[in-house]
Design brief:
Layout (H helix, E strand, L loop, with lengths): L32 H8 L2 E3 L6 E3 L5 H14 L2 E2 L7 E3 L4 E3 L2 H11 L8 E8 L5 H4 L14 H17 L2 E11 L5
Bound molecules: zinc ion (ZN).
Length: about 180
């Protein structure tokens, strides 16, 4: 037989003193000294250069250096003037040579300083009846989608397949070869 214990019974609980790490913010971390110290701290040394930085921030000079190295490793290609370009440095997309030249002139910078990346088009993809009407279609195995709906989707999908409609652009894997730009 199972022993019965009521909340009011002495056996239900005992008052004990516990030891553990408490951060400067007053949070209890038990044996986890590392987490408690992290919680109670405001800054940390950068793992690369040792500079003191806000504990939730990244080290700006080291981050910048890493971004530059990443960009320098990218394969280079001449820009065809058609694809959009993206610059992380300027946090900006350029949709034409005129647009780019205007920016460079205004800011008095050479194209090479923008770390330009050639973008890839994002096309409108074909759509499936099942995906669009997922929540409304009956789950009945014998159910057949009405013919006119199937035809309408097929007509739209044919256009999407053949016209290759561009919805947006996303930075691709090639950097712009800016020589002579
Ligand atoms: Zn650093």
């Amino acid at each position: 037989m199972k022993t019965i214990i009521l909340p009011s019974d002495d056996a239900a609980a005992t008052l004990q003193t516990v030891t553990g790490w408490v951060s400067a913010k007053g949070h209890f971390y038990g044996v986890d000294e590392r987490l408690a110290r992290y919680d109670g701290s405001t800054h940390r040394p950068c793992s690369e250069c040792g500079a003191l930085i806000d504990k939730n921030a990244y080290c700006t000079p080291c981050h910048e250096k890493k971004e530059l190295q990443k960009y320098e490793k990218m394969p280079r290609k001449k820009w065809d003037g058609e694809a959009m370009l993206y610059s992380d440095v300027a946090d900006k997309y350029f949709y034409s040579d005129e647009d780019l030249q205007g920016y460079l002139e205004w800011n008095g910078e050479p194209a090479s300083s923008l770390r330009l990346i050639i973008c890839e088009p994002v096309y409108a993809t074909e759509i499936e009846i099942a995906d669009v009407y997922e929540d409304s279609l009956p789950t009945d195995d014998d159910y057949r989608v009405p013919r006119e709906l199937v035809d309408a989707f097929e007509e739209l999908n044919t256009v999407l397949r053949e016209e290759k409609i561009i919805l947006s652009w996303t930075p691709g894997k090639f950097a712009v070869d800016t020589e002579g730009m």
